[in-house]
Automatic annotation (TrEMBL):
Domain of life: Bacteria
Protein name: Hydrolase
Residues binding a divalent metal cation 1, per UniProt: H5, H7, E92, D201
Keyword Endoplasmic reticulum: no
Alphabetized UniProt keyword annotations: Hydrolase, Metal-binding
Amino acid sequence: MIDSHCHLDFEEFDRDRDAVLTESANAGVTDLVIPGTTADSWLRTLHLCREHPFLHAALGLHPYFMDQHQAPDIDRLRELLVEHGEVVAVGEIGLDFALSDPDRNHQKKLVQQQLEIAAEIDLPVILHVRKAHDEMIQLLKQTPVRGGTVHAFNGSLQQAGHYQALGFCLGFGGMLTYPHSRRLHTLASQVSRETIVLETDAPDMTGFNHHGERNSPAYLPEVRDEIAKLRNESPDEVERYTTENARRVFNLPGDSQAHV
């Protein structure tokens, strides 16, 4: 299995990162995509992924941290992406209009700049979108990129179709395992299997069985099993096609094997 969205570089894992990786490998997680969020975290993310060949770095400026981003960060992002050809995506980027006081124009400008870089370098993007799917889809139509993933997708079935047409996969994670997540259950059961990828967003967005705990990529099988139940498919089948989808969208090798 591939965890298509895991913040293993966050300080929450500093005390036991290797143990978490061992546990995840034992659970069948062979690859993890580690999205960047701020410029001051990029080198740490790159270093971590160089230490472990089954970790794959993405670099981006997250809309949640708008007050931390500086104008020179865009040029630095382009430089690092050119310098480090092993980076698999631009992300985590996007639009978050659910924030208490979102600067929508500033967010749109920042994500537009990053989409242009992704198009220029021919990389997929990892999108964070809250209460802004229509606006994000419009931006993607204006600046086409080589697909990517929509992290923690919670839009409509129609919006899912638009993203699929633009080459995107949709990330489903721990929230899917809660009994009250009926809207997500409907989405996961109805979207095309070609669009589904697994994710944890660890250390955040912990699933039902671990509520109140730090999330972990080792819990990814619980997301796989929930999708299998909702779609009346076998866990092995879900594991196979979600892994194929993640490998395709991030251009990952087909024989990665997690070893710590």
